[in-house]
Protein backbone atom coordinates (compact mmCIF):
# COMPACT_ATOMS: atom_id res chain seq x y z
CA UNK A 1 0.00 0.00 0.00
CA UNK A 2 1.25 3.50 -0.81
CA UNK A 3 -0.21 6.95 -0.27
CA UNK A 4 0.13 10.07 -2.35
CA UNK A 5 -0.77 13.67 -1.70
CA UNK A 6 -2.62 15.90 -4.15
CA UNK A 7 -1.89 19.06 -2.14
CA UNK A 8 -1.90 22.07 -4.51
CA UNK A 9 1.88 22.42 -4.17
CA UNK A 10 2.59 18.88 -5.42
CA UNK A 11 3.48 17.90 -8.99
CA UNK A 12 -0.07 16.60 -9.38
CA UNK A 13 -2.06 18.93 -7.15
CA UNK A 14 -5.75 19.58 -6.78
CA UNK A 15 -7.42 22.88 -6.01
CA UNK A 16 -7.24 22.00 -2.29
CA UNK A 17 -6.12 19.15 -0.07
CA UNK A 18 -6.68 15.66 -1.43
CA UNK A 19 -4.84 12.38 -1.68
CA UNK A 20 -5.07 8.75 -2.69
CA UNK A 21 -4.10 5.34 -1.40
CA UNK A 22 -2.84 2.78 -3.91
CA UNK A 23 -2.81 -0.95 -3.38
CA UNK A 24 -3.22 -4.18 -5.30
CA UNK A 25 -4.62 -5.92 -2.21
CA UNK A 26 -8.41 -6.13 -2.28
CA UNK A 27 -8.78 -6.43 1.49
CA UNK A 28 -6.62 -3.38 2.15
CA UNK A 29 -8.49 -1.42 -0.51
CA UNK A 30 -11.82 -2.30 1.12
CA UNK A 31 -10.52 -1.31 4.57
CA UNK A 32 -9.22 2.04 3.29
CA UNK A 33 -12.53 2.78 1.54
CA UNK A 34 -14.41 1.94 4.75
CA UNK A 35 -12.21 4.18 6.93
CA UNK A 36 -12.43 6.99 4.36
CA UNK A 37 -16.23 6.91 4.29
CA UNK A 38 -17.03 7.30 8.00
CA UNK A 39 -16.47 3.57 8.58
CA UNK A 40 -19.72 2.81 6.80
CA UNK A 41 -20.53 0.64 3.81
CA UNK A 42 -24.07 1.98 3.87
CA UNK A 43 -25.37 5.28 5.16
CA UNK A 44 -25.83 5.52 8.94
CA UNK A 45 -24.41 2.03 9.63
CA UNK A 46 -20.84 2.50 10.93
CA UNK A 47 -18.88 -0.73 11.19
CA UNK A 48 -15.76 0.94 12.53
CA UNK A 49 -14.34 4.32 13.41
CA UNK A 50 -13.74 6.34 10.24
CA UNK A 51 -13.37 9.77 8.74
CA UNK A 52 -14.69 11.75 5.80
CA UNK A 53 -11.84 11.30 3.34
CA UNK A 54 -13.97 11.08 0.21
CA UNK A 55 -12.61 13.16 -2.65
CA UNK A 56 -15.25 15.43 -4.14
CA UNK A 57 -16.06 15.50 -7.85
CA UNK A 58 -14.54 18.95 -8.43
CA UNK A 59 -11.17 17.76 -7.10
CA UNK A 60 -11.40 14.75 -9.42
CA UNK A 61 -12.10 16.98 -12.44
CA UNK A 62 -9.09 19.18 -11.67
CA UNK A 63 -6.80 16.21 -11.07
CA UNK A 64 -7.97 14.42 -14.20
CA UNK A 65 -7.20 17.49 -16.31
CA UNK A 66 -3.79 17.90 -14.67
CA UNK A 67 -2.97 14.21 -15.06
CA UNK A 68 -2.81 14.68 -18.84
CA UNK A 69 -0.23 17.43 -18.37
CA UNK A 70 1.81 15.64 -15.69
CA UNK A 71 4.36 13.91 -17.99
CA UNK A 72 5.28 17.22 -19.66
CA UNK A 73 5.37 19.04 -16.32
CA UNK A 74 7.66 16.39 -14.83
CA UNK A 75 9.93 16.58 -17.89
CA UNK A 76 10.13 20.36 -17.43
CA UNK A 77 11.01 19.85 -13.75
CA UNK A 78 13.78 17.41 -14.73
CA UNK A 79 15.15 19.97 -17.19
CA UNK A 80 15.07 22.67 -14.49
CA UNK A 81 16.85 20.37 -12.03
CA UNK A 82 19.54 19.67 -14.66
CA UNK A 83 19.98 23.44 -15.15
CA UNK A 84 20.41 23.91 -11.39
CA UNK A 85 22.97 21.07 -11.42
CA UNK A 86 24.92 22.86 -14.15
CA UNK A 87 24.64 26.29 -12.54
CA UNK A 88 25.41 25.27 -8.97
CA UNK A 89 27.83 22.37 -9.40
CA UNK A 90 31.09 23.04 -7.63
CA UNK A 91 29.88 25.91 -5.41
CA UNK A 92 31.70 25.85 -2.07
CA UNK A 93 29.45 25.15 0.89
CA UNK A 94 26.71 23.55 -1.19
CA UNK A 95 25.77 19.91 -1.77
CA UNK A 96 23.39 19.20 -4.64
CA UNK A 97 20.71 16.50 -4.62
CA UNK A 98 21.38 13.29 -6.51
CA UNK A 99 19.18 10.74 -8.18
CA UNK A 100 19.96 7.11 -7.39
CA UNK A 101 21.06 5.08 -10.43
CA UNK A 102 18.16 3.43 -12.19
CA UNK A 103 15.63 5.97 -10.90
CA UNK A 104 13.85 8.82 -12.64
CA UNK A 105 13.24 11.81 -10.38
CA UNK A 106 10.12 13.97 -10.73
CA UNK A 107 11.65 16.83 -8.70
CA UNK A 108 8.82 17.93 -6.45
CA UNK A 109 11.56 19.82 -4.61
CA UNK A 110 15.13 20.76 -5.47
CA UNK A 111 16.67 20.73 -2.01
CA UNK A 112 20.34 21.61 -1.63
CA UNK A 113 22.36 21.22 1.55
CA UNK A 114 24.02 24.25 3.08
CA UNK A 115 27.26 22.91 4.48
CA UNK A 116 28.48 23.02 8.08
CA UNK A 117 29.85 26.37 9.16
CA UNK A 118 27.36 28.20 6.96
CA UNK A 119 24.25 29.93 8.29
CA UNK A 120 21.28 28.49 6.40
CA UNK A 121 18.99 31.09 7.98
CA UNK A 122 21.14 33.93 6.68
CA UNK A 123 21.28 32.36 3.20
CA UNK A 124 17.49 31.98 3.20
CA UNK A 125 17.06 35.58 4.37
CA UNK A 126 19.22 36.85 1.49
CA UNK A 127 17.22 34.83 -1.02
CA UNK A 128 13.97 36.20 0.41
CA UNK A 129 15.34 39.76 0.41
CA UNK A 130 15.99 39.31 -3.32
CA UNK A 131 12.39 38.16 -3.84
CA UNK A 132 13.32 34.51 -4.33
CA UNK A 133 10.83 32.05 -2.84
CA UNK A 134 13.20 29.51 -1.34
CA UNK A 135 12.12 27.58 1.72
CA UNK A 136 12.99 25.07 4.39
CA UNK A 137 10.92 21.91 4.22
CA UNK A 138 10.73 19.64 7.25
CA UNK A 139 12.96 21.65 9.62
CA UNK A 140 12.20 19.28 12.51
CA UNK A 141 12.75 15.51 12.13
CA UNK A 142 9.99 13.11 13.13
CA UNK A 143 11.52 11.77 16.37
CA UNK A 144 11.50 15.06 18.38
CA UNK A 145 7.98 15.99 17.26
CA UNK A 146 5.58 16.19 20.21
CA UNK A 147 3.45 13.35 18.78
CA UNK A 148 6.43 10.96 18.99
CA UNK A 149 8.14 12.07 22.21
CA UNK A 150 6.64 9.09 24.01
CA UNK A 151 9.05 6.87 22.06
CA UNK A 152 11.90 8.33 24.11
CA UNK A 153 14.34 9.22 21.30
CA UNK A 154 16.74 11.96 22.29
CA UNK A 155 18.78 14.43 20.26
CA UNK A 156 21.48 12.51 18.43
CA UNK A 157 19.38 9.34 18.03
CA UNK A 158 19.00 9.91 14.28
CA UNK A 159 22.03 12.00 13.28
CA UNK A 160 21.44 11.81 9.51
CA UNK A 161 17.87 13.11 9.82
CA UNK A 162 18.96 15.79 12.31
CA UNK A 163 21.76 17.00 10.04
CA UNK A 164 19.45 17.09 7.02
CA UNK A 165 16.91 19.13 9.00
CA UNK A 166 19.63 21.69 9.77
CA UNK A 167 21.09 21.86 6.25
CA UNK A 168 18.33 21.42 3.63
CA UNK A 169 17.18 24.43 1.64
CA UNK A 170 14.60 24.11 -1.15
CA UNK A 171 15.15 26.31 -4.20
CA UNK A 172 12.28 27.42 -6.43
CA UNK A 173 11.24 24.65 -8.81
CA UNK A 174 8.16 24.36 -11.00
CA UNK A 175 7.46 23.41 -14.61
CA UNK A 176 7.44 27.01 -15.84
CA UNK A 177 10.73 28.12 -14.25
CA UNK A 178 12.86 29.89 -16.85
CA UNK A 179 16.59 29.68 -17.40
CA UNK A 180 16.89 33.41 -16.59
CA UNK A 181 15.06 32.91 -13.28
CA UNK A 182 17.34 30.02 -12.36
CA UNK A 183 20.45 32.00 -13.28
CA UNK A 184 19.27 34.74 -10.92
CA UNK A 185 18.59 32.23 -8.12
CA UNK A 186 22.06 30.76 -8.61
CA UNK A 187 23.72 34.18 -8.55
CA UNK A 188 21.97 35.30 -5.36
CA UNK A 189 22.66 31.93 -3.72
CA UNK A 190 26.35 32.08 -4.62
CA UNK A 191 26.55 35.62 -3.22
CA UNK A 192 24.80 34.54 -0.01
CA UNK A 193 27.35 31.73 0.36
CA UNK A 194 30.20 34.23 -0.14
CA UNK A 195 31.35 32.63 -3.37
CA UNK A 196 31.00 33.17 -7.11
CA UNK A 197 29.49 31.13 -9.93
Output the strand order for the largest sheet: 5-6-7
Distance between the termini: 44 Å
What's the overall average pLDDT, rounded?
95
User: Strand tally, please?
Assistant: 7
Structure description:
This protein has 197 residues and is an alpha+beta fold. The chain has a domain at 69-192: Aspartate Aminotransferase, domain 1, CATH 3.90.1150. Helices cover 39% and strands 12% of the residues. It contains 5 helices and 7 strands. The protein has a 3-stranded antiparallel sheet. Strands 1-2 form a two-stranded antiparallel sheet. A two-stranded antiparallel sheet has the order 3-4. β3 and β4 (45-46) form a beta hairpin. It starts with a strand and ends in a 5-residue tail after the last helix. The mean pLDDT is 95.
Write the layout of secondary structure elements.
Elements (H helix, E strand, L loop, with lengths): L1 E4 L13 E4 L3 H11 L3 E3 L2 E2 L10 H32 L5 E2 L14 E5 L5 H10 L29 H9 E4 L7 H14 L5
Write out key terms for the chains shown:
alpha+beta, globular, 197 residues, Aspartate Aminotransferase, domain 1
Brief description of this entry?
This protein has 197 residues and is an alpha+beta fold. It has helices at residues 26-36, 57-88, 120-129, 159-167, 179-192; strands spanning 2-5, 19-22, 40-42, 45-46, 94-95, 110-114, 168-171. It has a domain at 69-192: Aspartate Aminotransferase, domain 1, CATH 3.90.1150.
Amino acid sequence: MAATSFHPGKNLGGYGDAGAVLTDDGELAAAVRLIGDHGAREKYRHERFGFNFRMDALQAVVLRAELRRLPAWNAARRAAAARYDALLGGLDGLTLPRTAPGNEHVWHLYAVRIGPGRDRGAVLAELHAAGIGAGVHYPVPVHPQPAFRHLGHRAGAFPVAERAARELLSLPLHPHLTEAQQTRVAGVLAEALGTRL
